[in-house]
Amino acid sequence: MNLAIDIGNSSCKAGVYGAGKKEYVKYSACQDKSFVEEIISRYNIERAILSSVLRESPGFITLLEDKGIETLILSHQTPLPFEMSYKSPETLGTDRLAAIAGAHNMFGNSNVLVIDAGTAVTYDMLESNNVYTGGNISPGLVLRFRALNEFTGRLPLVSKGDSFGNLGVNTVDAIRSGVQTGLIFEINEYIRTLKKKYRELKVIITGGDGKFFGDKLETGFILEPDLVLDGLNYILDYNA
């Protein structure tokens, strides 16, 4: 069986795959390696793949090596099932590579926009000729809320919430509405703009805040919370 590990800015995820099917997914704090140890004890893991947005992976590589599990560390040099025209692949986050691979696995030979709404919101474009042409990076909800609090003198730190209107009637509501509505406008406009350029554009949304935006966007999309894990497993099989 395969084990895919995605080390993000806020949390870690691991997925177990057998015969191309997802068997199990677990979320945890990145400092806690016990959830991976638990997975290894429950499943016959033969190969693993790891993606990390952190400069140092918190002990997972050593753990896998100590267990004798063949491990692929995803990088820009890893053979991928799609081509890239990105000018600085060495700076491209491996989570973005994995998400694009997941999109390729779902919709090969299609124009696909991948939106990963997490600590940062990334927009990545895979064209129908199976070439990754690039994307954009924008602050996510938490970063926007924190920026207003940390870079001003009196604005409070506000958290996201489902109840908000277009205009706030107090300062907390104004911040919540401004941040959340602003990001919704941003995502909607990216989708509208790219749909004008690409025929039959497919849109996939993933990431920790992906579900939050689920019923708040104007246009159709596919919500795939485990897109990065699925893409990691796809890359691991591609390199078998």
Describe the structure.
This protein has helices at residues 34-42, 60-66, 94-106, 141-150, 171-197, 227-238, and strands spanning 2-7, 12-18, 21-28, 47-52, 70-73, 83-84, 112-117, 120-126, 131-139, 202-206, 222-223. The longest helix has 27 residues, at 171-197. A hairpin with a 2-residue loop joins strand 7 and strand 8. It is built from six helices and eleven strands.
How far the N terminus sits from the C terminus, by CA atoms, comes to: 12 Å
Architecture per CATH nomenclature, i.e. the level-2 architecture of the largest domain: 2-Layer Sandwich
Q: Any idea of the CATH topology of the largest domain?
A: Nucleotidyltransferase, domain 5
What share of the residues does DSSP label as strand, in percent? 25-35%
Helix content: 25-40%
H and E order: EEEHEHEEHEEEHHEEH
Number of folding domains?
A: 2
Summarize the structure.
The protein is built from six helices and eleven strands.
Structural features:
single chain; about 240 residues; alpha/beta; Nucleotidyltransferase, domain 5; 6-stranded mixed sheet; 5-stranded mixed sheet; 11 strands; about 25% strand; globular
